[in-house]
Protein 1
Amino acid sequence: MRTLRGLRGLLRLAVIGLVVAAVATELSKPEEERTWHGKVWGAVPYDFRPPTWERIRAAYWNPDSNQLFSDRVFGVGWAVNLYQAKRLLESVFDRLMGAPPPLPIRMSTREPAAGRPRRSGGERD
């Protein structure tokens, strides 16, 4: 229990340090060059702009992206693309349960059976 508290405190200190570093990065720029989004030390993304619905959707539910993690909409760190997490969990579940892969649906016309003439549009049996 004591180790968990220490780990939690260390994590909290790291997050606070990243926020301070991100704000310091922006404040070190001339005022006209401040964008309030970027990466701390070229690795950890940050964004302090007001969130928009478009950015929220792109971060948390983006079927067009293959990435599981995306830049956060507000704050420091990463967001989880829930669409990709759902796909990943479905594939893991299917593998564990031994489900066969889904069959593709074909939209094609059927060929007549061997020895049976093809009917034209006006004929009836």
Protein 2
Amino acid sequence: MYSKNTIIRDNLSHIIFITGGTKSGKSEFAEHLAKKTNKLSYVALSERNINDKEWQEKINLHKKRRPKNWKLIETTDLLSTLSKEHGPLLIDSIGGFVMESIEKEYREWSKKMHSLISTLKKRNSITFIVGEQVGWSLVSEYKIGNTYIERIGELQKRITKISKDNWLAINGRAIKIDDISLEIPIENWK
């Protein structure tokens, strides 16, 4: 589907960005787009917590869906992984990158975010990234929740800006937002 039905914008990275809410189908759609990519590495970006049975069930469902020939990388250190892995990647999901730095002060977070964007822009291989859409509903009563919403929103705007294709998964459907949207001009991006 990717090579035939998507239009890739010139002069951008090799990033295909798929965002959506919980249970929207974003991971399944990213896997669908990536399934014909040779020598793909699947980057599962989360901490291993074997005591969380619900999380383990979710991980097992993801594993069952993926082709057996995909290399699995389980990590919380995306920057290190990107420095070592030069072939095609599917990163699921970028929220893990935000969580890994959630306790850091904004200045340190900002440096890390800019480093990620710079690294992604330099990649020569196709990179599918799954991201969580948050902040469309309730606002967290906790500082950590609001920090997460703010940081993932900022990061995902930047990823969208450098991506060749941007998709929104919602209710089991995928919408190519590049085709039906206008970029909002953002001044003073650093």
Protein 3
Amino acid sequence: MNTNTLPATVLAAKEKFELACKDASALQIVSNFGAAFTAVNVIALLREAMTDEVMDKVFMPLMNTKIGFLTDRNGRARSGGRAPLPLYTRDIVRDCIIDAVTIGLLPTGNQFNIIAERMYPTKEGYTSLLRKLGVKYFIDTSYDKGQTQNFAEIPCKINYEYNGEKNGFSIIATVKKDDYSSHDQLRGKAERKAKKALYEYITGCDFGDADEQSSVPIVDCEEKKRRPVGGCGSRRNKGRSECRAYYWGYRWATHTSPAGTNGRTNGAKRASQPAASTGRSRK
């Protein structure tokens, strides 16, 4: 789109949107105690910029495109020949874009999806978030080790360097599968969960999973010595064991507990290290 042909109102909105994106970058700083004030300003700027006219001319055409963002309502017929669900409304898309921008994502490059009217960062989104934090990492993604028909369990080993600290841990990524799921698709989903786990491990921020209600909770942890990491509402408080029943969709295979504890929560069993694998992601 040639910006010179855009109406003046849209060009003014573009400046506000760019300013909001710039201000939102301050929210990505771990332990930013003024984040609430910045967030209010960012949201106000975005709502001023994203008028109905701007939504219709700029952002709605990006919906359900790879260059923009994907949703679970794409206008196609559903399984069993059922009629397609209506596309998401302007208001829902606006709210999801605001949610995305405030955490450092953009409405381009498939950095987030809209599923069940909520925004969820994609693998590309977590790649962008980790890059903005300056995290260097190496992810070794294995193959399905699970025995269930509808879910794959894929071990992922994560090594990273952040603020001069080198460390690593492992997870078992649980992802949904069906008869048409390929190994590459499953491992791509597992890589997303690994990046999500790394981002949460560093910042303490959890943006949820679209399929977490269909996954199974697994308790598993192992002792590993490391320094505590702070972050936005981090659950890793001093004096507490960092082993826990962790979320839906993946489990920790390696985690931390302070001296004097056995590194177990709710009777958690110690996991063995996953076998070496060939799938790798380095950043």
